[in-house]
Design brief:
CATH class of the largest domain: Mainly Beta
Structural class: alpha+beta
Protein name: UPAR/Ly6 domain-containing protein
Number of domains: 2
Radius of gyration: 20 Å
Shape: elongated
Mean pLDDT: 78
Number of helices: 2
CATH superfamily of the largest domain: CD59
Strand content: 35-45%
Number of strands: 6
CATH architecture of the largest domain: Ribbon
Keywords: Signal
Organism: Xenopus laevis
Strand order of the largest sheet: 4-3-6-5
CATH topology of the largest domain: CD59
């Protein structure tokens, strides 16, 4: 019985891994993110990100791939008496930089069902 459970766990882990090493992220320019986004493939050292820029009191958002080393590094500068603040935030799953909460991947759900089936009937 213990061997069957081990096999079921192995198949669950095997099937739940995503293929590839780069992320798919939403991408849109400042001011257009509520209208439309495109999907973009990030580089191997990048994560999905959302950058909120405050120009004075006016916020604007951009979504794109962000170099991992720049994630969560807030910056602030003053130009002609107006303060510009940039607040990047990053995440590391496919299309995670959308406003919509992501659910379990279909492959992970299928892997869980296969693992349960194997544990019960094998």
């Amino acid at each position: 019985m213990q061997t069957k459970n081990l096999i079921a766990v192995f198949f669950f882990l095997l099937l739940s891994f995503e293929q590839g090493y780069t992320l798919q992220c939403h991408s849109c320019a400042y001011g257009t993110c509520k209208i439309a986004t495109i999907k973009k493939t990030c580089g191997i050292t990048e994560q999905c990100g959302t950058m909120t820029v405050h120009i004075g009191q006016l916020p604007s958002t951009r979504k794109d791939c962000i170099e991992s080393s720049n994630c969560f590094k807030n910056t602030s500068d003053t130009y002609a008496g107006v303060t510009v603040t940039v607040n990047p935030s990053c995440c590391s799953t496919d299309l995670c930089n959308s406003a919509v909460t992501q659910s379990l991947a279909v492959v992970t759900g299928i892997a869980a069902l296969v693992a349960l089936w194997l544990a019960k009937f094998c």
